[in-house]
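Holo prediction. Input below; ligand is NAP.
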Amino acid sequence: MSSKPRVVIVGAGASGLACAISLKKVHGLDNFTIYEKGPDIGGTWRDNIYPGCSSDVPMSFYSLSSDLHDWPQSHGSNEDIQAYWVGLTRKYGLYPHIEFNKTVVLAEWNSEKQLYTVTVENLATGERSVSTAAIVVSAIGVLEVPRYAGIPGRETFKGELFHSGRWDTSVDLAGKKVGVVGNGASATQFVPCITKDPSVNVVNFCRTPKWLLPPTRKTYSNLRRAILRNIPFAYRLVRWSVFLRLEFMYLAVFGNAFLRRVVTKLLTSYIRHTAPSSMHDKLIPSFPVGCKRVIFDTNYLKALHRPNLKVNWDGVERITEDGVVTKTGDHIPLDVLIFATGYAADEYPLPIVGNRKMSIQESFRAGGGGKAYLGTMVPGFPNFFMITGPNVVTGHTSVIYTTEVQINYIMQLISPILGRKIESLEVTQSATNAYDDKIQARLSNSVFMQCHSWYRVGGEGKVTNNFPAAATVFWLWLRKPDWIHYTVIGGESWLAKQQLRQRIWGGFKMSALLCILVLGASYSRRAIFR
Ligand SMILES: Cc1cc2nc3c(=O)[nH]c(=O)nc-3n(C[C@H](O)[C@H](O)[C@H](O)COP(=O)(O)OP(=O)(O)OC[C@H]3O[C@@H](n4cnc5c(N)ncnc54)[C@H](O)[C@@H]3O)c2cc1C
Ligand SMILES: NC(=O)c1ccc[n+]([C@@H]2O[C@H](COP(=O)([O-])OP(=O)(O)OC[C@H]3O[C@@H](n4cnc5c(N)ncnc54)[C@H](OP(=O)(O)O)[C@@H]3O)[C@@H](O)[C@H]2O)c1
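Structure of the complex:
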């Protein structure tokens, strides 16, 4: 039996797998289980198999910093990305740790035993089993539970109907009348692919236009690939350049009003040059760039010239057994209806109960929406860590990067638990409130407040998904735990020592800074009066 406490990870998408790799590498831990409700690893990249599905961040940066890969193109298809994560799962021996088709239906903190009781349901048999874990890491993703837009009559439709995140490959679209609801990142990737076949007649039901950036995809030359394969430093430079480019994009889109005006002009001109002129008025958004997720165009605007693709802006009133009725009363007959209407990103679906006998959903509701210290810990939930918890999505950079930053932070927090220096760790309510106030104050002045989007509760409420700064800031804030913001059970003297050490170090840094300022000021005074 392992002498180290047991860790349960919920979800075997990129985050759960990356966390498991770190548990092995950083802590040499073998005593962990990943419960995955799906039949395979991969999460997003297992589920999204729609035509044209691919990353919008270059793969050199949308991959683990520890496992650089020889990508043939700048952007990976869902198959390439899934194959990458399958390769890592094998490489790090993770398969024996994963229990597939098992959904975590409850994780409840037992204050007496200082453990979570984890109940898991086998989706194939319906059987439930119970085990305990000292630590629970939630890696359930954000874009995971499909949302169907609440249009009435969906159940009456007699044709084929599915969500973009659950693409039905058995449906042959050739010769069919296909309705697509939505024009977000998913729809704009698959609509140009399915309309390549002129026999597929698509009506794209759109509600709000989107800002689209010109395509940036390229296939790599053999020379470039050989250089990156053989010179790791060159690869690191490429990663850095992508990181910096995306940070610049943050500045241009979110951080600076003047640059945003320039970007708006460029994107308006891109839409005008690419889309049919009759559609310009409808296609140019009136809300600021960045308010909704910016989309890298994958030939959606060009595809609008195709005679077999029509855009309908009238709004879908209801679904009938053979089509849809628009808000203007038109009945549009359809054989297939595809919902590209996004995900329930404003709800936290993991059923977990903490030491206040409150579920995380009740806790979030009480706070008007998700609220977590550094998007990672919630007061009242000891030893529970979230990857991509509230306010972590940056909207401009690689999620794998923010995931690695969070995992590095979590590895430091769990170190004393795994080393049995403490039994449990909890973030304070005051630190969480102060953190939430800080980021909400920034968000209240941000572009995210200026339109309806999945970033906000119910589309229009509190912004609970976005981090309101550049990825560099996220890294800075999560580099090292500030132990002053935590309480522990079963290791109070260990915590007191960490807090004292941090206070002394903080005092030393402050004194050094003061000395530099005083010396600098006296030097410049002398220089001025000389
Ligand atoms: C189509 C699409 C394209 C994207 N492209 C990009 C991109 O280019 N760049 C980028 O940075 N981000 C992109 N994203 C965001 C993407 O979701 C993240 O980058 C990343 O893959 C998320 O990984 P994850 O492991 O956190 O979550 P997920 O991939 O969602 O995995 C969560 C896993 O948890 C499992 N799970 C959930 N609940 C339970 C439970 N109760 N019990 C057991 N298992 C559970 C799920 O089955 C799933 O396998 C994209 C998203 C979508 C939908
Ligand atoms: N790699 C990539 O490029 C990529 C690809 C796919 C997804 N993603 C990620 O996944 C996220 C989700 O993308 P998504 O496209 O699946 O979802 P989404 O961005 O949330 O888009 C949903 C679309 O459905 C529309 N919609 C919702 N209800 C509607 C209704 N009743 N009638 C008409 N239209 C309706 C929305 O319109 P409104 O705008 O009016 O609400 C929007 O156009 C993205 O933001 C991105 O982070 C990334």
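The first helix runs from residue 14 to 27. That is the main takeaway for now.
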